[in-house]
Write a structure and sequence with these properties.
Oligomer: single chain
Largest sheet: none
Shape: elongated
Number of helices: 9
Structural class: mainly alpha
CATH architecture of the largest domain: Orthogonal Bundle
CATH superfamily of the largest domain: Tetracycline Repressor, domain 2
Length: about 200
C-alpha cells in the first residue's frame, strides 16, 4: 500500500529515504533518466511531498552530491587515520570505488559528470569540487610516497592523481557489462602498478 505523506506530515526520515532512492537511481540510470515520479513511487509518497523536501531537481541533485561527498571524504579521513602505509592508502582508495561497483552502481559524481553540460550550475560546481578534492588528496599521498622512497617520482604527481581517478571511473564503466568485479579489479591493479604500488599479497 502506498503511503501518501504531505508537507504537514513529512519528516527528516522522509528526506533521507528520498535521498537513498534518488542516489540509487542516479548511480544506475543517471540524473537525466531519473524523474520525480520514479522517486516518489519508490519511496511511497506523493510528488507534493517530494517537492516539499526538494522543490526542484537541482535541489535534490545538490543534496545527493553533498551527502555522497561527505561520506567519500570521511572515508578518506579514516584511511589517513588508520593506514600509515602509502601503498595501503592507495589500495584503500581504489577499494571505495570497488565497493560501489560491487553494489551494481557507479560513482555518483562520475555519473553526474557524464551529464555535466546539462547540470544546473550549483551541481556542476559541487561535482567539480568533488574531483578537485580527490585529485588533491591523491596528489598528497603520492608526494608522501615519493618522499618516503615508497613510490617512484612521476613526471607530475597531479597528472598521476588525475589519471588514477580517470582510470577508476573508466574501469567502473567498462565493467558494467561484465558480471562481478573481476574486470574492475584487474584494471585497478594495473593502475596501481603504474603508480608504483605493488600487488596485494
Amino acid at each position: 500500500m502506498v503511503t501518501t505523506a504531505t508537507p504537514d506530515t513529512a519528516t527528516p526520515d522522509t528526506a533521507t529515504r528520498i535521498l537513498d532512492v534518488a542516489e540509487e537511481l542516479v548511480q544506475t540510470r543517471g540524473l537525466n533518466a531519473m524523474s520525480y515520479a520514479d522517486v516518489s513511487a519508490r519511496v511511497g509518497i506523493t510528488n507534493a511531498s517530494l517537492h516539499y523536501h526538494f522543490p526542484a531537481k537541482a535541489d535534490l541533485a545538490v543534496g545527493l552530491v553533498d551527502r555522497y561527498s561527505g561520506r567519500f571524504f570521511a572515508a578518506l579521513d579514516e584511511i589517513e587515520r588508520t593506514r600509515p602505509d602509502v601503498a595501503d592508502r592507495l589500495r584503500a582508495y581504489v577499494d571505495i570505488y570497488g565497493a560501489v561497483l560491487a553494489r551494481g552502481r557507479m560513482c555518483l559524481c562520475g555519473m553526474l559528470a557524464s551529464d555535466f553540460e546539462t547540470l544546473p550550475a550549483a551541481v556542476q560546481k559541487r561535482v567539480s569540487e568533488f574531483f578537485e578534492r580527490s585529485y588533491t588528496w591523491l596528489e598528497h599521498v603520492i608526494d608522501r610516497g615519493v618522499a618516503e622512497g615508497r613510490l617512484p617520482a612521476p613526471a607530475s604527481s597531479r597528472a598521476t592523481a588525475e589519471a588514477l581517478v580517470a582510470g577508476l571511473e573508466g574501469a567502473m564503466l567498462v565493467s558494467r557489462p561484465a558480471a562481478g568485479t573481476e574486470r574492475f579489479a584487474a584494471i585497478a591493479d594495473a593502475l596501481l602498478a603504474a603508480v608504483g604500488v605493488p600487488a596485494r599479497v
